[in-house]
């Protein structure tokens, strides 16, 4: 249970009871996520999470019990679901912007023995996991879905030079996707050398340590003086949102992907926007279609997420897991198992 900032407690809670159309799942693996760490370290918008609450949102497991009228999924089936389900009837859903649904339901509670999938989520955002895919791999469907949505916003072209700010789990997923999309050059920017080394191992062509190199100058050197075709911010800080705008070429696109603290603003140079014809895109979350696509890409290993799972820890060790994530330079995602 998360009670407040950095106040995570292992407690006995009731096993959720299922109602009509719902499914109870025994969690086999949950993966830690930058969003979880952010919520743990600084709290989050109460539109999405209210404390105290069970916590964690990337998970996979076995169907333990289903509501009798459901034909699918069946008991024992390996599934993943959520962490969201749009209503399909609000104005945003009618426009096909399911990720911006006005009545979105969210599911928390991956760091637990059991999790209950709400009726709407059973219908629109639950998938069976193929036999050869591990539970921890399947849990990564959620962040990959978000990355696929962000990627579609930008629509990068074969041969683009792509700069990614932030070599955390999300930045690294963007890197895997960028390389599959045929980026000519993928440049990873971070402050931690260990993370940059990791990025190189999984496909980054160049890395820049923003702590001891001039990022703007290096990006210009690496792109023939023009700047990157696409810049992706994957940290969630106004300073790096602004930095992204200094790294993009004329006519290029900036994807501001990382969510910044509530109430923050950035400055945009009007000349960059006008004479440089910069496109600035935001991206929030994902649609049910992206979740399906993400699991398919994980299953086919088109996007191999296995290297991102750097450690496995037990549910009782959840506090240690978050302390590790707060300080470690090498752990990317920790799989939490029962
Ligand atoms: Zn996540
Ligand atoms: Zn809706």
Give the helix level as a range of percent.
Answer: 25-40%
Query: Can you count the beta strands?
Result: 17
Low-confidence region ranges:
none
- Cα-based radius of gyration, to the nearest Å: 20 Å
Helices and strands, in order, run as: EEEHEEEHEEHEHHEHEHEHEHEHEHEHE
Account of the 3D structure:
Helix content is 31%, strand content 24%. The chain is α/β, with parallel strands linked by helices. Strands 3, 4, 5, 8, 9, 16 and 17 form a seven-stranded mixed β-sheet that branches. A hairpin with a 2-residue loop joins strand 1 (2-4) and strand 2 (7-8). The mean pLDDT is 96. Bound molecules: zinc ion (2 copies).
Task: Record the SSE blueprint.
Layout: E1 2-4, E2 7-8, E3 23-31, H1 34-42, E4 59-66, E5 78-81, E6 84-85, H2 91-94, E7 105-106, E8 114-117, H3 119-124, E9 126-128, H4 135-139, H5 141-154, E10 161-165, H6 169-180, E11 185-190, H7 193-201, E12 206-209, H8 215-222, E13 228-233, H9 238-247, E14 248-256, H10 270-274, E15 279-282, H11 288-299, E16 309-314, H12 318-327, E17 333-337
Parallel strand pairs: 10-11, 10-13, 11-12, 13-14, 14-15, 16-17
Antiparallel strand pairs: 1-2, 3-4, 3-8, 3-17, 4-5, 5-9, 6-7
Helix pairs in contact: 5-6, 5-11
The structure holds zinc ion (2 copies).
One zinc ion binds at residues 86-87, 90, 92-93, 101-103.
């Amino acid at each position: 249970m998360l009670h407040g900032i950095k106040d995570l407690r292992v407690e006995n809670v009731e096993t959720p009871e299922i109602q009509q159309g719902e499914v109870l799942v025994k969690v086999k693996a949950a993966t830690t996520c930058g969003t979880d760490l952010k919520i743990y370290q600084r709290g989050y918008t109460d539109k999405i999470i209210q404390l105290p609450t069970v916590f964690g949102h990337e998970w996979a497991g076995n169907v333990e019990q289903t509501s009798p009228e459901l034909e699918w999924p069946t008991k024992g089936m390996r599934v993943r679901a959520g962490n969201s389900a749009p209503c399909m009837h609000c104005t945003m859903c009618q426009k096909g912007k399911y990720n911006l649904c006005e009545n979105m339901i969210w599911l928390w509670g991956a760091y637990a023995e059991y999790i209950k999938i709400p009726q709407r989520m059973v219908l629109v955002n639950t998938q069976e996991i193929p036999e050869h895919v591990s539970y921890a791999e399947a849990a990564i469907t959620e962040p990959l879905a978000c990355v696929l949505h962000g990627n579609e916003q930008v629509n990068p072209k074969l041969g683009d030079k792509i700069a990614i700010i932030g070599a955390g789990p999300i930045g690294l997923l963007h890197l895997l996707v960028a390389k599959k999309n045929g980026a000519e050059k993928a440049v990873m920017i971070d402050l931690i050398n260990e993370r940059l080394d990791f990025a190189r191992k999984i496909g980054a062509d160049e890395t820049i340590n923003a702590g001891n190199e001039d990022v703007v100058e290096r990006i210009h050197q690496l792109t023939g003086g023009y700047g990157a075709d696409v810049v992706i911010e994957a940290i969630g800080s106004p300073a790096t949102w602004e930095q992204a705008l200094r790294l993009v070429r004329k006519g290029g696109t900036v994807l501001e992907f990382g969510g910044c603290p509530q109430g923050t603003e950035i400055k945009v140079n009007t000349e960059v926007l006008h004479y440089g014809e910069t496109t600035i895109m935001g991206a929030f979350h994902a649609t049910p279609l992206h979740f399906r696509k993400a699991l398919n890409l994980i299953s086919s290993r088109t996007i191999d997420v296995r290297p991102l799972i750097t450690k496995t820890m037990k549910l009782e060790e959840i506090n240690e897991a978050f302390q590790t994530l707060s300080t470690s330079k090498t752990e990317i995602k920790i799989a939490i198992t029962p």
